Amino acid sequence: SPIAGDANCPSLLEVGHYRQSCPAAESIVRATVEGYFSRDPTVTAPLLRLHFHDCFVRGCDGSVLLNTTTTSGPAEKDAMPNQSLDGFYVIDAAKAALESQCPGVVSCADILALVARDAVSLATAGNTGGASLWEVQTGRRDGRVSSAAEAVANLPSSFADFAKLKEQFASKGLNVKDLAILSGAHAIGNSHCASFAKRLYNFTGNGDADPSLDPSYAAALRARCPPQFDNATTVEMVPGSSTSFDTDYYKLVVSRKGLFHSDQALLQDQEAGALVYFLQGSSTQDFVQRFGVSMVRMGRAGVLTGSAGEIRKNCALVN
Ligand code: HEM
Ligand SMILES: [Ca+2]
User: Fold this and answer.
1) 231 is in which domain, residue-wise?
2) What SS3 state is found at 312?
3) What digits encode the pLDDT tens for the residues 34-70?
4) For the CA of 46, the nearest atom of ligand 1
5) CATH code of 203's domain
6) What is d(CA 302, CA 10) in angstroms, rounded to the nearest whole number?
7) Measured from the CB, is residue 113 less than 6 Å from ligand 1?
8) What is the pTM of this model?
9) What is the pLDDT of residues 107-159, one digit of tens each?
10) Which Cys residues form disulphide pairs (predicted)?
11) Which ligand is nearest the CA of 262, by number?
12) Residue 48 Cα, ligand 1 centroid: separation in angstroms?
């Protein structure tokens, strides 16, 4: 049976939680994201990733936004897999605009969920005007704890096999379908060489390449990321199309050109593999409709509601 904070328990969050307390909340967030997106469409990918990294560690409670302090110990932000997170300035700008309109009302955890929806809506191929593609449930409250060690333990590794990914998603109340659909987020954005270089040079420790990677694509990636790669070098998830949210990711996975072992690992499972093949032939519209459903499910993971937690004044600091 569903438990509070489980992705399968729909009762605690609601669409339009701020309808009375801050009627402009969603339009303020939307205007903030639009402002940044119109100047730089690459902003969508880090914003989407922030919500994912929040929800997988202590649930969607804004823990990813907290700074390390002298008393807290290293926060999530300072964990290795979070060194490449970006877009915090957009969350802070939305929070500042919300605080001036309705002080102390809108949680940082909800801002992450709304920003992810708005950023993806603006980046979705064919979605003229960036109309909102799904309704976001709100009413999350902000946590007071952020631990780098918990981030390392809970965030999936790009070298993971299917069984491990399935287990980590299940622990957040997400099923194989959610895993396959949410992985489609890798239609946008970039990756540092370190997140996949082992696939190119030393996959099992014998100087071999990952057999699940297309050999000609591996060669192209080796040219971008030589053995002594520069830590700042990044590669597009989808070559030439990394700001367009669409089904290209699935086309790459089918052709063994997924950037991460974890992308290619979807084909290790019958159910996930069938979905990958289905989605690569689907319309963007069909894919984003499904993506929205799984995002809402992810957004319920481990949430704090009611009087739990707090509404932070500054997203980087507990009150
Ligand atoms: C299935 C397990 C997943 C793994 C192992 C994984 C791993 C990674 C890694 C290693 C990177 C590149 C980091 C870097 O080197 O710069 C990345 C980027 C990204 N991930 Fe994932 N990810 C997963 C699922 C997801 C999900 C569920 C979402 C969102 C719903 C997501 C959204 C993104 C985005 C948008 C980027 C690009 C970020 C940017 O360009 O700044 N990922 N992911
Ligand atoms: Ca969190």
Assistant:
1) 181-289
2) coil
3) 999 999 999 999 999 999 999 999 999 999 999 999 9
4) 41
5) 1.10.420.10
6) 12
7) no
8) 0.96
9) 999 999 999 999 999 999 999 999 999 999 999 999 999 999 999 999 999 99
10) 22-102, 55-60, 108-315, 193-225
11) 1
12) 9
